[in-house]
């Protein structure tokens, strides 16, 4: 039996000067499946994203990180600040 699953990530920030609350949310849907792949990180072995044949655990880390709900929500944060004129150094690996 497979179950549908939705991951939701919400990254919130508050501007202390004016009290504005900003929320950056993204979600990713998939299925809970029998465990496949390495079991070294949370739900990865049992979560198969919609449109993919592999579980998160079976995917190369680079591929998983590009489609994850966390990555996409934080990309919204980065986009928000880039539109406001901030720049980001991405030399860290």
TrEMBL record:
GO cellular component, as recorded: cytoplasm
Name by which UniProt lists this protein: Inosine triphosphate pyrophosphatase
GO process terms (BP): nucleoside triphosphate catabolic process
Keyword Hydrolase among record annotations: yes
Keyword Ribosomal protein (UniProt): no
Keywords carried by this UniProt record: Hydrolase
Source species, domain of life: Eukaryota
Species, as recorded: Malus baccata (Siberian crab apple)
Cited InterPro entries: ITPase-like_fam (IPR029001), RdgB/HAM1 (IPR002637)
GO molecular function: nucleoside triphosphate diphosphatase activity
Similarity comment: family membership: Belongs to the HAM1 NTPase family.
Any coiled-coil regions, as ranges: none
